[in-house]
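P.,

For your records, the input lines for the assembly:
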Amino acid sequence: MRMICFAKRNFMELTRDVLSLVFEIALPIFLLFIFQQIKIPGDTFKLVNFTPGIIIFGFAFITLFTSTLVAKDRSTSLLIRLGTSPMKPRDYILGYILSLIPIIIIQNVLFFAAAILLGLNFSVSIIWTILISIIVSILFIAMGILIGSLVTEKASGGVGSIVVQLVVFTSGMYFSRELVGAFFAKVCEILPFESSLNIIKGFLNNDFSLISLRNIIVFSLWTIIILIISIIVFKKKMVSDNK
Amino acid sequence: MNAIEVRDLTKRFKDKIAVNNVSFKIKEGELFALLGTNGAGKTTTIKMLSGLILPTSGEILINNMDMKKDVFKIKEILNVSPQETAIAPNLTVLENLKFMAGIYQIESKDKKIKELVDIFKLNEILNKRAKTLSGGWQRRLSIAISLINDPKILFLDEPTLGLDVIARKELWKIINSLKGKITIILTTHYMEEAEALSDRIGIMSNGVMVDIGTSEELIKKTKAKNFEDAFVAIATGGEL
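Structure tokens returned:
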């Protein structure tokens, strides 16, 4: 109940920031539209491949704005007030995660609505993709909580932007990793963004051969590790911020 | 009955001792002012008493419950108005009150909110976003929120800091109306505030509780002309 109440408040804070909605929803849809107009040859920009890229790109902004919200909460006395309430650490973390799930669903529905308007065929795979995207989004939300717990409100924008850039360059949404050399390909393999993209692509295309075991392991490990670290760091910071 | 009992409370941050072996008792319904110079240890003491940070050593009993064992039970019956305004900026005044009522799981939420809106005269700003309010209104809302769970113990950390004279007097009136009903621990830098509002005053210096008494007792003890002089004499050990 406390967790739901906190989530509701976070949702209101996030959705009342017009800039966050522009970056989380409007910008990815704009990119989807633009890249379909250019008619670039190859498979990367086909709607079945590029829409998952747009989903991951939108999630990168979820990381950015989650980190700003957490950092802002830390900088004001609101967390001091909540720290003296009977809220438990799990209420905070789940409260942040739950508040973002409706935004993730809205994002996905609008992305797919735009993609269908641009020519993507409607299929049940879209529903499955939206559901798997919610699971994938936990990684991005946890990264936001971790960044917001570590840096100030001002710095959170900058660090969040790095995540956006990493997603753009290492997820494979714009170009295949084979095109950029062995070292960079290894980086893409190790970071979780390409794996996240492949998982979503596999579900949308209803072709699970697109999802390798490595993708599942890399994504799962990153998500579990980042989630655990974000909980530990957030708890520690709540105490140390109050010294 | 004692609402708060503190025994040998110490807080150490690395090599710095913020609060050093402090002991005192506060009776139920009492308004206790905690005074001291900057860095005296007041806010650290309040943070330990409100369960926000753990003491390095010592014992805190709130309504006979041990802070170490019953921290979540204790948190149900206390509330804090922090030094800086603690509100959700993008939420309206009403949404802020509803949000905190939800956090404390208040059963008769609407009734409690109406009561607070009346006491703090928040009606005219009820649907305004908190970030658009003046400092005085934000502080008023912050204190109203701290009463949402009908706390038995209320910590007011410099509640009138930065407010103009009228806003300050208005808050004094509200705090005075709470006297006797709630145990209040108030920290302030305004001597006249402590003198006007409190039943007893504790003076801290360098992490130590130097003296405790009513304002009259402290003036008499130091043979000072007024309370401000008494405070200076106690806080500096008679050096000034």
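Two observations worth noting. The interface with chain B takes residues 1-2, 4-6, 8-9, 12-13, 16-17, 76-78, 80-88, 239, 242-243 of chain A (CB under 8 Å). The radius of gyration of chain A is 18 Å.

Regards
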